[in-house]
TrEMBL record:
This is Deoxyguanosinetriphosphate triphosphohydrolase-like protein. SMART domains: HDc (SM00471). It comes from Clostridium acetireducens DSM 10703. It comes from the Bacteria. Belongs to the dGTPase family. Type 2 subfamily. Transmembrane segments: none annotated. Residues 75-190 form the HD domain. GO terms for molecular function: triphosphoric monoester hydrolase activity. Keywords: Hydrolase. PANTHER family: BIS(5'-NUCLEOSYL)-TETRAPHOSPHATASE, SYMMETRICAL, SLR1885 PROTEIN. InterPro entries: dGTPase, Diverse_Catalytic_Enzymes, dNTPase_2, HD/PDEase_dom, HD_domain, PHydrolase_assoc_dom. Pfam families: HD, HD_assoc.
Length: 342
C-alpha cells in the first residue's frame, strides 16, 4: 500500500459520510496515472498554486486601485484568506480540506484587472458577456500550459464554477466542500474590505449599522468568528435534520447580506471611488479596443485562439489575464507619447 492509499484510507475514518472522498472522485477529462503520495485533490491544489495565472493574482486589485500601502488586500491575499476560512469551516464540519483548498485557491483565477470594474467592462464589450467564475474555468481548462489546461478533477472545477453569487436562487456547488468555499468567499471579502476601507479612511467602524454590529460583532475578528462558527454549527444541524447543505442560520445570513449591501452602497459603488473606477474602465476599454483592431500585436498563443474561436474570444482571453500593472504598462506603451528626440 502506497502513501496515497494510506491518506485515502484515513479520509474514510476522519471525514463525515457526506464529505467528498478522493477515491470516489468523478475524475479528470484526460485519464492519468495516480500519484504515489498525493490524492487527486492534493494534485489539483499543487497544479493551481504552480500555475502562472495564480502568480498573477498578486498584481490584480481586490478593491482599491493603485494603492501605495503594503497592507491592502490584493486578489492573491484575498484568495489566501478565503482558503484559510474555508479550511477552518471544512475541518469543523468534517469535510475534505484538500478539495476545499484546491477550490479556494482557484476560485478567482479568472478575475480581470482593476477589481470588478474590469469584469464590468468585459461584460459590456463582449457579445456573450463575461463572468469571472466561468472565465476561471476557461483559464484552468483552456489557457493554462499553453492551451493544454491543468486537467483538474470534476469536483474542483464544479466548486470554482459555482463559488459566486449570494442569492438563494444561485446554483450551488455539487459538493459540500464547494459550498463551504462559496460562503467563505463572502465572509472573507466583506470583512477584509471593511478593514481596508477603514485603513484608507473611507469608513469608520461606527458607520456600520448597529443592527448588523449587534448580530455579527463590532470588530473584524469578532465578525469572522461569528460567521465561521455559525456556518459550522448550522451546517451540522442541517445534516442532522437530513438537509445536506452548507448554510448560515437565518439571522446571521441576513446580517451578512445587509453588511454586503452596505459595502456595495458605501464603497464598491460609492461616490468616493467613482473617479478611479472610471479611469480604470477607460484604460481597460482602450486596451481592449486596440487589440480588437490590432490582433496581430498579441502574443502568438492568443492569435491562435482568434483563428480557432474568433476575434473577441482571443482578445478577451489576453485582456482578462492581465494584471493591473501590465494593463497600465500597455496603455502607456500604446497611447502615451514618448520622448524620442533629445
Amino acid at each position: 500500500m502506497n502513501i496515497r492509499e494510506n491518506i485515502e484510507n484515513r479520509e474514510k475514518v476522519n471525514l463525515m459520510p457526506y464529505a467528498s472522498f478522493s477515491i470516489k472522485s468523478k475524475g479528470r477529462v484526460l485519464k492519468e496515472n495516480k500519484d504515489e503520495i498525493r490524492t487527486c485533490f492534493m494534485v489539483d491544489r499543487d497544479r493551481i498554486i504552480h500555475s502562472k495565472s495564480f502568480r498573477r493574482l498578486k498584481h490584480k486589485t481586490q478593491v482599491y486601485i493603485k494603492t501605495f500601502g503594503d497592507h491592502y488586500r490584493t486578489r492573491l491575499t484575498h484568495t489566501l484568506e478565503v482558503t484559510q476560512i474555508a479550511k477552518t469551516i471544512g475541518r469543523g464540519i468534517g469535510l475534505n480540506e484538500d478539495l476545499i483548498e484546491a477550490i479556494a485557491l482557484g476560485h478567482d483565477i479568472g478575475h480581470v484587472a482593476f477589481a470588478h470594474n474590469g469584469e464590468e467592462v468585459l461584460n459590456e464589450l463582449l457579445p456573450e458577456g463575461f463572468k469571472h467564475n466561468k472565465n476561471s474555468i476557461r483559464v484552468l481548462t483552456r489557457i493554462e500550459k499553453q492551451g493544454k489546461g491543468l486537467n483538474l478533477t470534476w469536483e474542483v472545477l464544479n466548486g470554482i464554477l459555482y463559488h459566486s453569487g449570494f442569492s438563494r436562487q444561485c446554483k450551488t456547488a455539487a459538493t459540500l466542500e464547494g459550498q463551504v468555499v462559496r460562503y467563505s468567499d463572502k465572509i472573507a471579502y466583506v470583512n477584509h474590505d471593511i478593514d481596508d476601507s477603514i485603513r484608507a479612511s473611507l469608513l469608520k467602524e461606527e458607520h456600520i449599522p448597529k443592527s448588523i454590529v449587534d448580530i455579527l460583532g463590532k470588530s473584524h475578528s469578532e465578525r469572522i468568528d461569528t460567521l465561521v462558527k455559525d456556518c459550522v454549527y448550522n451546517t451540522l444541524e442541517n445534516i442532522k435534520k437530513g438537509i445536506i447543505k452548507v448554510s448560515l442560520s437565518k439571522d446571521i445570513e441576513q446580517a451578512l447580506y445587509e453588511l454586503r449591501e452596505f459595502m456595495f452602497e458605501r464603497i464598491y459603488k460609492g461616490e468616493q471611488l467613482k473617479p478611479e473606477r472610471k479611469k480604470a474602465k477607460f484604460v481597460l476599454k482602450q486596451v481592449f479596443k486596440y487589440f480588437l483592431n490590432n490582433s496581430e500585436k498579441m502574443p502568438e498563443f492568443y492569435r491562435h485562439i482568434v483563428i480557432q474561436e474568433g476575434l473577441y474570444q482571443g482578445v478577451a482571453d489576453y485582456i482578462s489575464g492581465m494584471s493591473d500593472d501590465y494593463c497600465l504598462f500597455l496603455f502607456n506603451e500604446i497611447y502615451v507619447p514618448k520622448l524620442i528626440i533629445y
